[in-house]
Amino acid sequence: MKFFSPTSELKELLLLEHIENNPDTTQKAIAKIINGAVSMVNVYIDNLEEKNYLYRDYKSAKTIYYNITHEGIKRKNFLAITYLQELLKLYKLAEENVENFLLGLENKGYKRILIYGAGEVAETILAVINGRGNKTLRVIAIVDDNKEKRGKKLLGHHIIPREEINEYEHDAIVITSYTFEDDITNRLNEIGYPVERIERFFTE
Asked: Is residue 161 classed exposed, middle or buried when 0-12, 13-18 and 19+ CB atoms within 10 A define those classes?
C-alpha cells in the first residue's frame, strides 16, 4: 500500500485474520503478512496471547499451531470495521475530487469523452461515473498505447489504440496518466488532435 504504513492496529488485524484461516502458519509467513521482521513475530504473538486473542498449540517441538479465540474473533471484527470506516472516509475525499473534475467537464458542455490511459486512475473515474446515476457525461472508450491491453475491457469499456480515436464520436479526451501525461499530450499533438479538446486530470 502506498498511503498506509502498517500501524500496530493494522498488524494486529492482519495477524488475527491470517491465523484464523491458517492455524498451521509459520513465523516467516506471519512476518510477510504483517510486513514486519521475523524477529518481532514472537513479540506480537506474546502480546495477543496475553490478551486472550489467540493461543499456541504445540504439536511437537518444531510444530506450533496458532488458534484464534472467541475474544480474538471479536477483536478482529472490531479492527476490520474500524479500518473500513477510515478507508471509506478517504474514498469519499477522493470521490469528491473526481466529482469536481467531472462537473468541470460538464460545464464545458462535454457529454461523450474518451479516457486516455487504462490504469488505476481511469478505473477510479469510471467507478465514480458509474455511480452518478443519470448524469449526462459518458465514457465512450478507453485509449491506451499498451498493446497487451488493446481489445480488452475496463469496467465494460473497450480499450482501443490511438489510431482508432477518430472512429468514436466524442467531445474530448481526458488524460488520466500521471507519469505519461506530457508524453500522451505530445502524441495527440503529433496526430493533429485539437488541443482545446484535451483535458488533463492531473494538470489543469
From this structure: middle
Class of residue 65 by CB neighbours under 10 A (exposed 0-12, middle 13-18, buried 19+): middle
Domain with CATH 3.40.50.720 in the chain: 108-200
Q: Which of 87, 92, 142, 96 is nearest to 119 (CA)?
A: 142
Q: Per-residue pLDDT tens for 151-201?
A: 899 999 999 999 999 999 999 999 999 999 999 999 999 999 999 999 999
CATH class of the 8-87 domain in this structure: mainly alpha
Task: Tell me the per-residue pLDDT of 16-45, one tens digit each, with 9 for 90 and over.
Answer: 999 999 999 999 999 999 988 998 999 999
pTM for the complete prediction? 0.69
> Measured over all CA atoms, what is the biggest interatomic distance in the chain, rounded to whole angstroms?
72
* Closest C-alpha among 145, 128, 155 to residue 180: 145
CATH class of residue range 108-200: alpha beta
